[in-house]
Design a protein that fits this description.
Elements: H1 3-25, H2 31-45, H3 59-86, H4 89-112, H5 118-137, E1 140-141, E2 162-163, H6 167-192, H7 196-215, H8 221-250, H9 256-262, H10 266-276, H11 283-300
Antiparallel strand pairs: 1-2
Helix pairs in contact: 1-8, 1-10, 2-7, 2-8, 3-6, 3-7, 4-5, 4-6, 4-9, 4-10, 4-11, 5-11, 7-8, 9-11, 10-11
Length: 302
């Protein structure tokens, strides 16, 4: 991967970590916030389109590519928000961003004809190990022993059973969504010669329609959400599109199998934030699990 592509990916990682921190803080707002996020993204980035390649080589390709991508992004954001609502920021984020590049690398080989070395296969295994480690760190004790067990075999008081954080399952689903839109978007940009900025604006414009349809009886909350959370809406509107515009620019010159893993350096940033600011478990353990994930990502990028 070239130095320019690498710098684009790292900048994208910083932006991505930033908007995920913002999204986690309002995860329970759901559709009203996502609607405003799509509106803000479109309004803020639409004026940039004429200065960044216009609509690209194919208006029809832009419509199809952005339309399909919007559906995949809506699924991604919906699953991600649900994960943040039931799990911790660090767990959901690390699981999603760890599994996403592993699946993306495999799909890039199968669908885009990219090559995957033996080292990269090992890297996938290491990423999965890091994801599992994240889940073990966040195991939670069950509330009480099972009432169906006889007294003689009830667990010893003070020793509760443990289960995996539900954020793990939602994180894995988010990872699949990430892989889906990553592969499709790379295909769209390469096939139709699209501009990353106009493509992203097309996606957010279509998202407005999708989120409008999901608001239902929550239309009355839209104004209240804007008044109470407009700084977050603006931050989301800037950082979320920017993070992906940088990635889309990188995949025009670098393989998806390399770009997708490299952008996940944001895992460490979010893990540190979760431990230091949100007090989500041990900083040392979270850094250790994140380092494992990043070690796998490094192998994928060789």
């Amino acid at each position: 991967m070239s130095t320019t592509a690498l710098l684009l990916v790292f900048a994208a990682a910083v932006c991505h970590a930033g908007w995920n921190v913002v999204a986690h803080g309002v995860s329970r707002l759901g559709a009203p916030f996502l609607w405003w996020g799509a509106v803000a993204s479109t309004v803020l980035w639409l004026p940039v389109v004429p200065f960044t390649g216009g609509l690209g080589a194919s208006v029809g390709g832009l419509a199809v590519g952005a339309g399909v991508s919007a559906v995949l992004h809506v699924v991604y954001m919906t699953v991600l928000q649900r994960g943040y609502a039931v799990g911790t920021l660090s767990t959901v984020y690390a699981t999603a961003r760890g599994s996403g590049p592993a699946v993306s690398a495999g799909l890039a080989v199968l669908l885009l004809g990219e090559q995957l070395s033996a080292t990269a296969v090992v890297g996938i295994a290491v990423v999965v190990a890091g994801v599992v480690a994240t889940g073990l760190i966040d195991r939670r004790p069950s509330a009480s022993p099972s009432p169906r067990l006889p007294d003689a075999v009830q667990p010893t008081p003070g020793r509760s059973r443990r289960r995996l954080d539900p954020g793990i399952a939602w994180g894995l689903l988010t990872g699949l969504a990430i892989a889906s839109y990553t592969i499709w978007d790379a295909h769209a940009l390469r096939t139709w010669g699209l501009s990353p900025v106009s493509f992203m604006v097309g996606v957010t414009l279509a998202e407005i329609a999708f989120y409008s349809a999901t608001l239902g009886r929550r239309h009355g909350e839209v104004v209240a959400v804007a008044r109470a959370h407009w700084p977050r809406v603006l931050a989301f509107g800037v950082l979320s599109p920017l993070s992906y515009i940088l990635v889309l620019t990188a995949i025009q010159t670098a393989p998806v199998a390399l770009v997708a893993p490299a952008r996940e350096t944001s895992v460490v940033m979010v893990a540190v934030f979760g431990a230091l600011v949100l007090r989500e478990g041990s900083l040392v353990k979270r850094l250790a699990a994140s380092v494992v994930v990043l070690g796998g990502i490094a192998l994928l990028a060789l």
